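Standup notes
- DV: blocked on the single-chain target, sequence here:
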Amino acid sequence: MRAASSIVAPMSGHTIAFRSKAGFICDMDGVIYHGNRLLPGAREFVAWLQKNEKKYLFLTNSSERSPRELHQKLARLGIDVEEEHFYTSALATAEFLAAQTNGCSAFVIGEAGLINALYNAGITMNDVNPEYVVVGESPSYSFAKIEKAIQLVRAGARLVGTNPDLTGPGEGGVVPACGSLIAPIELATGSKAYFAGKPNPLMMRQAIKRLACRREESVIVGDRMDTDIVAGVESEIDTVLVLSGVTSMEELRGFAYRPKMILDGVGGIVEADEE
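- DV (later): unblocked, structure below
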């Protein structure tokens, strides 16, 4: 393992002047923590953001937890971040559905973070004749729920997923994410799900809007090439890939696009700034 400050700058030798950036959009799983384990450098990175009065938003494709629960989780790990600094794929999904159809209903496979986000957006729960079937990460995912979702989609409900991630990082290794969980429903119905989370430009625009920063003065930090980095590239925002999560250096060869910088972890941002 290289030192945390080891940097690969694959785009014409360019680097990012972090001190000059006003806004930071950061993933959480694989960047700040794995499960309930805080990753090296995460505490120092958040302290650096706060000390330098940076605008920052933790943008996560995980739909299980609400901003309040994420605030409480980081607090248990020793990091104090207020609820306003979190934006989840559950919130993005709820905002998308509310904008599509006023007062719609949904059959939901997901946890409290997703259900509460939908409810707060005025979307009712319906397992008989909903307009939408919405799928997010859930440890209570079951054959019975998949069967019900398939019946509803075949009856006319539109299929929506919180995010397209196939896998995510966990304490014990890789775990299945929304893209994998929704696949049986897509295959059995012939329907293609619409995903509201990263790399959907809708979620990225919401993030920039919430930060109140221009894209030129912002940076995206993530561990996934297929969501975090491609979202930044397509939004013309500088990107930092950290190798503490899903994507490895070896896997970079399979992508046509590249991050502007690569670090072993978010602690490298602090060290790069000091250098």
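- Follow-up: The chain has a mean pLDDT of 91.
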